[in-house]
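Hi R.,

As promised on Friday, here is the backbone we talked about, encoded as structure tokens. Could you run it through your design pipeline when you get a chance and send me back a sequence?
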């Protein structure tokens, strides 16, 4: 019986099960056997892979759940793994004609390597990738989010709103850190939805170098502005991606010692960025003699496995069905893309990759866009020259905390 194999790589995002179940339902309907691989690519480089055969009932049970029924892994095979461990028999014995991968750019790149390897072994196979990340940083066309982002933002907003209510109730400040390895989409989306008076993302430092002092001074700027306004409370949300832009010297200032994952990325999930940011803020306001209490809150793993919202349930279903459409059209080595009108088309990695490095560059927040500038100019609170006289009650040199001067805007 003709078959397809499907696996999930990297970390979870809301909608993983929706994609997998939609792929399974569509291919089962068209007479295929659907084999799920646990532990990402690990099973393809093992003689005893953990697999599961999908039927309609299993697919129907999981399609609207959070998390991932197929266990995930960040395993990235080396050239040695390909030479010594690749399980070619798995493809041959099961008559697999398509490998479907669900994950980020690292997962997609490995899928391409596998397809090329199988072709070299005279076993041609199609591979189609479904792009996933709550960070919304894959370079899809304008107006198209990565799946999982809207659900993560919705849950992050629920948490962020509760935190802001606590700030009002207790008249404290909260320092919130949000996931976002390379871009600030999630932090900005949550902060804008919650009307936080300060949002800090790496893209805001487009005209200056990110430093620990600048990050802290932006929060202090908001604290002083709110005091001038007669408000003793507030919240600042900071994207964890600012750490990726800090120099080694600046990271040492923060006191953080990172370990790194298999792809060479700092394992930000092992440390509380909110705690570090809050510690630095407390030291600064104490030095300035400003009376304010602040508390750290992390928004990270809390949003990765939540139940997908309606947007992602529909979007991920379309992505899953789109895999079959592209496969039936003979497409391979591509990502499935669903535009805002619901039309399906392929996006080829070679068209997205940097020609020099071969890596897919992240899609950054456009800080010059009307959407961002409207939030910055209307919702955020910070010191400007008009506030200098009033701000001198709290600091001797208000210009040090001038929002536009800090960012060189």
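Update: got your reply. Pasting your designed sequence below so it's all in one thread:
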């Amino acid at each position: 019986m003709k078959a397809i194999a499907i696996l999930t790589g990297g970390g979870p995002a809301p909608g993983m099960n929706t994609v997998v179940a939609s792929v399974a339902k569509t291919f089962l309907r068209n007479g295929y056997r659907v084999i799920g691989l646990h532990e990402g690519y690990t099973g393809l480089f093992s003689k005893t892979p953990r697999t599961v055969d999908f039927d309609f009932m299993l697919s129907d049970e999981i399609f609207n759940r959070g998390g991932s029924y197929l266990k995930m892994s960040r395993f990235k095979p080396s050239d040695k793994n390909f030479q010594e461990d690749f399980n070619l028999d798995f493809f041959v014995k099961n008559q697999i004609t398509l490998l479907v991968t669900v994950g980020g750019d690292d997962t997609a790149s490995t899928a391409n390597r596998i397809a090329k390897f199988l072709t070299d072994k005279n076993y041609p196979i199609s591979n189609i990738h479904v792009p996933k990340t709550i960070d919304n940083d894959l370079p899809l066309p304008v107006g198209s989010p990565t799946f999982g982002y809207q659900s993560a933002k919705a849950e992050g907003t629920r948490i962020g709103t509760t935190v802001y209510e606590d700030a009002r109730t207790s008249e404290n400040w909260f320092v919130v850190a949000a996931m976002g390895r390379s871009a600030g989409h999630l932090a900005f989306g949550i902060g804008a939805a919650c009307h936080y008076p300060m949002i800090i993302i790496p893209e805001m430092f487009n005209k200056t170098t990110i430093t620990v002092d600048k990050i802290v001074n932006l929060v202090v700027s908001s604290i002083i502005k709110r005091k001038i306004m007669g408000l003793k409370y507030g919240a600042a949300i900071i994207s964890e991606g600012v750490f990726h832009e800090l120099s080694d010297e600046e990271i040492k200032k923060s006191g953080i010692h990172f370990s790194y994952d298999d792809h060479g990325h700092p394992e930000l999930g092992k440390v509380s960025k909110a705690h570090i940011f809050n510690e630095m803020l407390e030291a600064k306001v104490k030095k300035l003699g400003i009376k304010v209490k602040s508390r750290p809150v992390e928004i990270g793993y809390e949003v990765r496995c939540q139940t997908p919202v309606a947007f992602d349930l529909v979007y991920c279903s379309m992505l899953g069905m789109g895999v079959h459409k592209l496969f039936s059209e003979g497409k391979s080595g591509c990502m499935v893309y669903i535009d805002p009108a619901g039309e399906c088309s392929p996006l080829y990695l070679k068209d997205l990759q940097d020609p020099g490095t071969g890596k897919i560059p992240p899609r950054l927040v456009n800080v010059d866009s009307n959407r961002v500038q409207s939030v910055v100019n209307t919702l955020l609170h910070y010191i400007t020259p008009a506030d200098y006289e009033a701000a001198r009650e709290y600091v001797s040199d208000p210009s040090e905390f001038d929002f536009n001067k800090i960012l060189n805007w």
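One thing I noticed while checking it: The chain has a mean pLDDT of 91.

Thanks again,
M.
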